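Input.
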Amino acid sequence: MAQTGNFKSPARMDTLGAGAEVSSSGTVPGGKPRETGLKGVDFERRGFLHKVVGGVGAVVAASTLYPVVKFIVPPVKEIKQVKELTVGKASEVPAGSGKIYQFNEDKVIVVNKGGALTAVSAVCTHLGCLVRWEEADNQLFCPCHGAKYKQTGEIISGPQPKPLKQYKARIDGDSIIISKA
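Output.
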């Protein structure tokens, strides 16, 4: 049989005995109110759990995002700046041809025209495409937009705004040495 109404109603209290205390707040006698706990510390279970779950979520988010960011952002690559560099063997650039080498942060094309070496930047000043040596036309040619340069990097025709940067090239023994002009 289910009981209805207040368990400690005055009518019910008569049956429990005269010593029972009537309480309308429903607290357990002898229980401590919330204000008399640790002084100055506001511990609430719900607030504590929010902080713990938020901290765990932040750790999970950081541990997931860190490798993604490291993958997307390329590492900083330091290139040692030198004034002179041996780039290859003289036999790699036969007469009437050109070959591209890396020099510091720039790509340089070395052209061998009848034994005389010239070196200029291989990066077109229009849109940054790599130029190539055209022996038949005796000029450097950019295949992207048809820019044409002399062997020394001077502009012949095309949309490029500036000539190619010049470098010095020489043969020492069997090695090609490129240096800043």
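The helical segments are 10-16, 45-72.
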